[in-house]
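Our consortium's second objective concerns turning raw sequence data into structural hypotheses that experimental partners can test. To show how far this objective has progressed, the report includes one record in full. It was chosen at random from the queue rather than selected for favorable results. The single chain below, 155 residues long, was entered without modification.
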Amino acid sequence: MERPPNLAAAIDAAAEALIGVLDSATTRHNVSVSPTQLRVLSLIMAHPHSNVNRLAELLDVVPSSASRLCDRLEAVGLLRRVADPRDRREVRLIPTTAAESLLRELTERRHQAVQAVLDRMPNRVQHELLLALLAFSQAASVAAPAGSGSTARSA
């Protein structure tokens, strides 16, 4: 089966539409933290026992920038810095209960917003979309070399 010449453009447009749906769900929530701060919290949740240096690596920024992001999150009660019990020189980044609750609620709102769009699509198309997204994810994970910083965005 030959690929349509505008497939990449169609995927780009769909990604923009998805970002719009997700941003809309976040905006309606009246979140008091920036998208970058939400990303930092998500990364810390996904990488337990991270320190500022590891966070900087994940964000592809210098450690001082990651530290300033952590300062802001700590100031609003969404992050704690805790000495590692195994090595007190090491400081771990721990999301607070408030951060976990915020991320859980935002995830639920985002899923509801995406589901509302999916509900406007026929079941057959939803199934085809699922298969295509799984294949795309598989191909993307094979294409990205380990440690390439594929999750990195600028802070």
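The partners drew two points from this record. Helices lie at 7-27, 35-46, 52-59, 63-75, 97-118, 123-143. The two ends are 41 Å apart (CA to CA). Both points have been shared with the crystallography group to help prioritize constructs.
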